[in-house]
Design a protein that fits this description.
two-stranded antiparallel ribbon, alpha/beta, EC 1.7.1.17, flavoprotein, Flavodoxin_fold, Rossmann fold, 206 residues, 6 helices
């Protein structure tokens, strides 16, 4: 089985989402020692945001500006990693009610017509069916329910975009209220790690 491990938290060792994705991957490896893990740190790799030049570039990159060609090749490699993965573990902290721009840049490299989706007479069809996505979702406040749920453009976006790619098996491991005091932060992390340790989100296909 192939596992793709994605981190996008900008706080380094202080990042709770990174802590949770590491725990998820460790648990997966414990359950499936044969799992092959590919890791991408979207912060340290500094993936450029999508540009018109990238979209308009020809499939054959011969003669294309070397810097642009190199960037396109990286994006294509990330797409192939995604397509090859059976399970994708994504660290997605909430920044300003949405996802990190680094994570959005990665998703923009995945949204390629003919690869992860296509348009048909009946409407769009996802082409990445059969995959499983586990998102480590971290939030400073509480957005799962109540009035603040209307401000959640993080989990709702991720569920929508992966669904657009044809992925219906999307799970969230949540640590909420991380900015509401030390006790709440410790409790939220402990509860998320307990969920992971108990295997409640790791119903992995054989």
């Amino acid at each position: 089985m192939n596992v793709l491990h994605i981190d996008s938290g900008i706080l380094g060792d202080h990042s709770v989402s990174r802590r949770l994705t590491a725990a998820l991957v460790t648990q997966i490896k414990a359950d499936r020692p044969d799992a092959k893990v590919t890791y991408r740190d979207l912060v340290s790799e500094r993936l450029p945001h999508l540009t018109g030049a990238q979209i308009m570039a020809p499939a054959d990159l011969n003669g294309v500006d070397p810097a642009l060609a190199s960037d396109i090749r990286v994006g294509r490699q990330m797409l192939e990693e995604f397509l090859a993965a059976d399970t994708i573990v994504v660290g997605a902290p909430m920044y300003n009610f949405s996802i990190p721009s680094q994570l959005k840049a990665w998703i923009d490299r995945l949204a390629v017509a003919g690869k992860t989706f296509r348009y048909t007479e009946a409407g769009p069809e996802g082409l990445a069916k059969g995959k499983r996505v586990i998102v480590a979702s971290t939030r400073g406040g509480h957005y799962s329910a109540g009035p603040a749920s209307a401000m959640d453009h993080q989990e709702s976006y991720l569920r929508t975009i992966f669904g657009f790619f044809g992925i219906t098996d999307v799970e969230f491991v949540r640590a909420e209220g991380l900015n509401l005091g030390a006790d709440q932060k410790q409790f939220a992390i402990a509860e998320a790690e307990k969920t992971i340790a108990e295997g409640n989100v790791l119903r992995l296909a054989s």
